[in-house]
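Something for you to look into today, if you have time. Could you write out one complete protein record for me, on any chain you like? The space below this message is yours for that.
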Amino acid sequence: MTVDFGDHRRCILAGIKREREKPKELEGLQSLFVVNLAPRTMAGIVSQGMLFDIGFADGVLPVLALPEKPVPNGTRAE
């Protein structure tokens, strides 16, 4: 996916097809991303971050961590 961080965009690969019947439903939603990782090549494509979701480690169908109201793209979580 191409993610808009306000002042720049990044390509971020996320294996969400097996978790979601319709991944396209996520388009336009804001979510949390981890971006202070070294770029990683997967399937011949460079991923520049990671989608942050909740539940996978506990065996729960993952859900996105979403802001309770819209914030400017690129706003940092602290």
User: Anything to note?
Assistant: Strands lie at 2-4, 9-11, 33-34, 40-42, 45-47, 50-51, 53-54, 63-64. Residues 2-64 form a domain with the OB fold (Dihydrolipoamide Acetyltransferase, E2P) fold (CATH 2.40.50.140). The mean pLDDT is 91. Residues 1 and 27 are 9 Å apart (CA to CA).
